[in-house]
Amino acid sequence: MKTSIIATGASLKDYDLTQIKGHKIAINYAYKYVDYDMLVALDDPKRFGFLQPNLYTTQHWVKKYGQGTGFQKSSFKGIDREVGFVGACNGSLFAAINLALNMGFKTLDIYGADMALTNCYSHFYSTEPCTSHQANTYKRVFRRHRSHKELFMSQLLEDETINWINPQEEQFFNGVAWS
After folding, report:
1. What percent of the chain is modeled with pLDDT above 90?
2. What is the DSSP secondary structure assignment for residue 11, as one 8-state letter?
3. Residue 129 gets which letter from DSSP?
4. How many CB atoms lie within 10 A of CB 179?
């Protein structure tokens, strides 16, 4: 079984999301731009507008708002193989990967998980480039996400595959490469 996970990276700017066929998991605001089967969002779903159909979020938010399918974050780092749990790695992307694998999907195509700024933009729907302050925050987040990506890749089972579509290898901001 295969699913596509659609994140919000700037590499998807001008990408025709209708080309993505089959089962789709939207991450955060990607739900506004793609017909999805699941929406995975960890932030307060009421505050950020994620109280949408087929929302998967933490049990805390489900209890608070009475909507969505809840999962529990475990203390395990990486992919938690227990159904209903996701590993302690932060971020909606990694929760979606964990949930997809626990639901039996064996091939995951991941779009827009840039883990980098693209021409100073952090999201494909952004209309303004990020500020220097935002860029410094993203720098820390992206470094953590790249380490989580490596951890998840190392924990895949033999019959599981993650295809990173359009990954960004380096981060640039104001002409300076981040390592």
Report:
1. 66
2. G
3. P
4. 5
